Multidrug resistance protein (Flagellimonas taeanensis), 403 residues
Amino acid sequence: MVTKPYTEVKRLHADHKKKATLISFLMIPLSGLVTDIYAPSLPTMASELQQSEGAVQLTLTLFLLSYAVVQFFAGSIMDSYGRYRITLISLVLFILSNVVIAMSTSLGPIYAMRILQGIAIGCIGVAKRSFFVDVHEGDKRKHYLSIMSIVWSIAPIVAPFIGGYLQHYFNWQASFYVLAGYASVLFFLELLYSGETVPEFRPFKRKAILKDYGTMLRTPMFLYGVICSGLCYGTIMIFNLSGAFIVEHGMGFPPVVAGYASLIMGIAWLLGGFIGKSLIDRPFVPKLRIANILGIAVTILMILSATVWENLYSLILFAFLVHVGVGFIFNNYFAYCIGRFPKMAGISGGFIGGSAFFITSISSYAIVGLVHPQDQSGLGISYLAMAMLIMVILLFLVRPEKA
């Protein structure tokens, strides 16, 4: 039964629909920004805080884990209590956490704030992914969901590029001050032009929630898509975790170059998304299988060629091709999953984000920890491990007739 507070919350005004949509698109990249902007600063953080590579890499993994876990609960809570107020609170917490990180001189507070950031950004991510399902319908919804994935891909492009220069001209703290400033602007825009978008509040009842989760878990195409999306983004995280160390420590280049390398990887991810959108009407499963097989071929060539051709250019070329492939697969499968259950957009969006990024954080950190890539060959082996896991899903578990 819906209680009185639901009717008192500010609803999205019809005249502000376009502005609120634009604001949502501006918020979608937040998760990528907070993940990637300080990637070129990881070696400097390790040095200044007198910590190991693994210790500072854990700041990224902790964020991804909390970001993943909170989404399991955020979706059902927002379907019952709304998205608008939770988004505003999350933005405030995110702003404050960035300031605390920038002022910290040890990893303890940074770990705590990265967990808090994961919670805040997880709530914002669920709310804004659900926004497009709440507000738009039919072909427009399908269009916006595909665009959403591409917009989300912008963050990995601009974030490390900006972060590399911030590290070069200032220090690692500058990235977090920039994040706080950007989130502050978004907070005031959200306050002025957005509002509640839940079309019908769902009862916050255990049986109803378990029933919704059961529906999703009994849909194989959806479930495999969530796993596949997590592994695809985990491939990107492998470069975020190890790329700066390879470029700066292994090859001797400055942080700006590491930022440019990450920028190129972001362009590859975005290109894969655009290719995915352009081929949206092609048979679903076959095109994903082809992209995966080509990706495996590239990673094998990346490993074998390291004995005769290994430098910054070869590293970037092979990694670029790998990122295009996983970007293509992710764009197609993630958009499919987001739009699969429109009547329970919040809980399904939370399940998708939570599951996918839990898989992302565990798989990427585990592979980097096991392989410890320090050169082109090591990075290629890490990529190959992810590609083989994706192949198992696409070739042996997903059935084309279920697409």
